[in-house]
Amino acid sequence: MLQINKPSEVISAILGEQNYNHMQEYRFINYCINSDTEQGILLYNNLTKELILISENEYNNLKNSNFTQPKELIKNLIKKWFLVPQNYNEMLLADQLLATVRTINKENTICNFTILPTTACNARCFYCYEAGTKVKSMNQQIAFDVAKYIIKQSKGKTVRLNWFGGEPLCNIQAIDIICETLKDNNINFYSTMVSNAYLFNDELITKATSLWKLKWIQITLDGLQETYNNIKNYIHSDPNPFQRVINNIEYLLNKNVAVQIRINMDSHNADELIELTDFLNNKFSVFKKLTIYAQPIYEGVGYKKTSRTDEERKAITQKYVALCKYLDKTSIKHRSMMFNKFKCYACQADNKTWVMILPDGKLGYCEHFVEDETFGTIYDNSTKRSDWSKYCKPYEKCKKCAYYPTCIILEKCPIAKHKCFEYEQINRLEDIRRGMMGSYKEYMNKKGNE
Predict the structure, then answer these.
(1) 83-85 and 112-115: which strand pairing?
(2) Please, are residues 246 and 198 in contact by the beta-carbon 8 Å criterion?
(3) Is residue 435 part of a domain?
(4) Burial label, 178 (beta-carbon count in 10 A; 0-12, 13-18, 19+)
(5) Is the pTM value of this prediction over 0.85?
(6) How many separate domains does the chain show?
């Protein structure tokens, strides 16, 4: 047995080692995910976050002997919580661990800020989940007051500013004021951004890296030139916005900004995305700070609030899995979702160290709620309401789902409106398997270079 990734320190401290009982019959814990490699079978425990490699013969012996052979491996897998007694309730254990970790996690200093300088956007994507949102932009005084709020809340800790929108570049002035004020007050900070990147140019990118301290940006691509230009439907008179964005991606990468390209997938563009992947690979494969991932478009969003049938979801899932496997074969690094730390928050909404600041200075929970669900302003000492920390009750299908320890869904979240579509479950587990393979390859490369 070879350990590729160590378990979470906090979970190991709480759980300790499981004792072996020769009178018990054992099975794999429901949170164990396996993946084949040329050297054997990877096993990932999504509860403890440990990743190990065993031989194919050992794996087959385990299964064929009803988890009685080989004995030394059995004892190690039990000790590490990969195997549990037949009647064990691991869902209860996962719930108890989450509650314990949240109790002992005393960090509550706000040092992560998602800031919407504006809800305006220069693109008009048909699937936008902010469709119909009232346009508001942060004025100079509020921008200055936002900076003062950040200084007060962060208490000397390093600050992360996540610029969001609308399109955050539609209000560069507010970003400048906030960053200049933090700089003048000797606050240690860095920025990330979600943007369509159209409004960048070489000069602005230089300012973004120097004044804004931009380290990472997510940019969405919906297809190749014709498809992209039609979907984005920019307000600008530009014959080829696609090429402008591609050029800006290259500028950003040359300035050492990490770029994550998100490919939105649906029936209208699914068949084109392999070709888009080839284009991106040929264009950007030399850059180490480029990652790419695919995401089926959310349901119930956009101007028409469309939804899929079960057959349509199945078709999209098949094409999504095929695209992700193709991404894995390219030289572009594919984003993975193998969590090495125990996840104790659903997202920024229930994270005590994170707030969202709206253009008018109101404080919010989530970018899916920019017109309601606020809890105060930058001018008071309001804290998040407790109802935003209530989790969805598990469904019957959750009992044996390997993703369960990582699947924290808030009752307030739009995702909670449906009972976990099958394609969502498949997507999440496939992401973990890609993460397992990424960690395995990295481990083997390091071992080969020793």
Answers:
(1) unpaired
(2) no
(3) yes
(4) buried
(5) yes
(6) 1
Please tell me the distance from the alpha carbon of residue 168 to that of residue 356, in angstroms, as a whole number.
Answer: 14
Cα dihedral 320, 323, 329, 332, rounded to 10, equals: -100
Mean predicted confidence (pLDDT) in 123-150: 93
How far CA 235 is from CA of 23, 137, 227, 230, 243, in Å, comes to: 71, 18, 16, 12, 16
Residue 53 lies in a domain: yes
Report how far residue 113's alpha carbon sits from residue 182's, in angstroms, rounded to the nearest whole number.
Answer: 13
Cβ atoms within 10 Å of 8's Cβ, excluding its own: 22
Burial (CB count <10 Å: 0-12, 13-18, 19+), residue 164: buried
As a whole number of Å, the CA-based R_g of the chain is: 23
**Count of Cβ atoms closer than 10 Å to residue 384 Cβ:** 18
Scored b (16 or more CB within 10 A) or e, 100-127 reads bbeeeeeeeebbbbbbbbbbbbbbebbb
Give the closest residue to 299 by CA, choosing from 309, 291, 290: 309
Distance in angstroms (rounded) separating the CA atoms of residues 388 and 98: 16
Q: What is the pLDDT of residues 75-105, one digit of tens each?
A: 999 999 999 999 999 999 999 999 999 888 8
What's the chain's length in residues? Answer: 450
- The answer to whether 307 touches 266, Cβ cutoff 8 Å, is no
CA distance 156 to 450: 40
Q: What is the pLDDT of residues 99-119, one digit of tens each?
A: 999 888 888 899 999 999 999
| Residues whose CB is less than 8 angstroms from the CB of residue 22 and which lie 6 or more positions away in sequence, other chains included | none
Pairing of strands 51-54, 354-357: unpaired
Q: Domain limits at 443?
A: 2-89+426-449
222 three-state secondary structure? coil
Task: Tell me, yes or no, whether 150 lies in a domain.
Answer: no
Q: Is the CA virtual torsion 428, 430, 433, 434 positive or negative?
A: negative
**What is the rounded distance in angstroms from the CA atom of residue 199 to the CA atom of residue 427?**
32
Instruction: Measure the CA dihedral 221/222/223/224, to 10°.
Output: -50
Instruction: Centre a 10 Å sphere on the Cβ of residue 419 and count the other Cβ atoms it contains.
Output: 10
- Angle at the Cα of 115 from the Cα atoms of 113 and 120, rounded to 5 degrees: 165
pLDDT of residue 1: 92
| Cβ pair 191, 145 in contact under 8 A | no
CB distance 270 to 316 below 8 Å: yes
Whether 224 is covered by a domain: the verdict is no
Q: 3-class SS at 390?
A: coil
> What value does the mean pLDDT take over residues 181-206?
97
